[in-house]
Amino acid sequence: MENILIKNIGKLVQAGENPVLKRGKAMGTLECMEDAYVYTEGDRIADYGLMRELPPALAEIEKRSADPHYEKSVRVLDASGRMVFPSFCDSHTHLVYAGSREREFTDKIRGLSYQEIARRGGGILNSARLLHRTSEDDLYKSALQRIDEIVCSGTGAVEIKSGYGLSTEDELKMLRVIRRLKENAPVAVKATFLGAHAVPDRYKDNRRGYVDEIINTMIPLVAAEDLADYIDVFCEDGFFTVEDTDRILNAGLKYGLRAKVHANQMGLSGGVQVGVKYNAISVDHLENVGDKELETLCGSDTIATLLPGATFFLNMEYAPARRMIDRGIPVAIASNYNPGSCPSGSMQFEMALACIKMKLTPEETINACTINGAWAMGLQEDYGSVTKGKKASLFITKPIPSYDFIPYAFTTPFIDIIVLNGKVI
Ligand code: NIG
Fold this sequence. Notes:
This protein is of the alpha/beta class. It folds into two domains: about 5-85 and about 385-425, Urease, subunit C, domain 1 (Roll); about 90-375, Metal-dependent hydrolases (TIM Barrel, Alpha-Beta Barrel). About 35% of the residues lie in helices and about 20% in strands. It is built from 16 helices and 16 strands. Strands 1, 2, 3, 4, 5, 14, 15 and 16 form an eight-stranded mixed beta sheet that branches. An eight-stranded parallel beta sheet has the order 6-7-8-9-10-11-12-13. Helix 5 (about 135-150) packs across helix 6, helix 7 (about 205-225) runs parallel beside helix 8 and helix 13 (about 345-360) packs across helix 14 (about 360-370). It is globular. The two termini are about 10 Å apart. The protein binds N-(iminomethyl)-L-glutamic acid.
């Protein structure tokens, strides 16, 4: 693997040696360096700093790199005044799935709600039927294509959930696909077991029976094959109750699976409270939260992961992100890439929605999509900032006037060169 020197960086964004989880006022501050360099060795960031303080050995490399006869041991990239960012960290996706659901999209246009479609056997159950008929290899290939797509839009680390299997066999199939992605994809992958995503048809009148299958059969098998890092439940009216969620998270914890919760998407589901009770790494969605939920989050270490792409797609009220930040709750933003509520993995689009609809500043948004996203996946030691020793996963922008331009010109491509784990791709 070659070493890389990126020189003449106009602005090196999110660079620093103390990349803590950002909350409150700190969410509005972004550490940047003007006229900077980054040097990567192998798959790690070895050094960064100001161009005028370029260490002599790197200055020598930089000088000699212009000579075509020089044996290059270091690839020199000239950013020519453009910006360099750490890769985005997308901490909530369902990007392993079969087929697509544009028929339901048009049903929604005609007036059906997400919950009505689900009650008629569509939605997640529709995706589960499609997934059942799809081979592990085909699922892997289509997911890898989606990963290529998110890589091109700047993502370098991603969480992927199961939850379109809804049987022991198919949940394991999905998680094995995620494991293959972990082993082969150019991005870092964290796996989440979401057997409790919907109640399958065979348990239509016996939700408790399905929860028992999750607890007694699925979780032990998932743990035995070490297929998941986290466990998640869709805690929502019509899906799983607080009591179900409590039982499942408790069972997961016994196998070392830390909680994440789909909480308060459609109503005041109690998902926030049960998530915090289990010290969830994050509670996700949060379109419907009041003072009680915010109070609960304030006294916890749980991250609020917001998914404005799904709020947009389902045409709902946005999560009260400003109130969360103002109360000191750490906020992450993720794409929620999935076939039902957000068929997009574009973090640029999420950033635009965060700014326009949730009134986050670009700085708050960048923190939510980088360092706080990394924390929401437990990847903060390796991703989310330009820090010595972290993975060399970065991108060089096109010539854009400022980082505000990224959410502002929200369909304009803004990335020129992508480096993932020390490799230009
Ligand atoms: O996070 N809300 C539950 N899960 C996904 C949607 C999944 C689907 O509709 O396929 C979400 O929005």
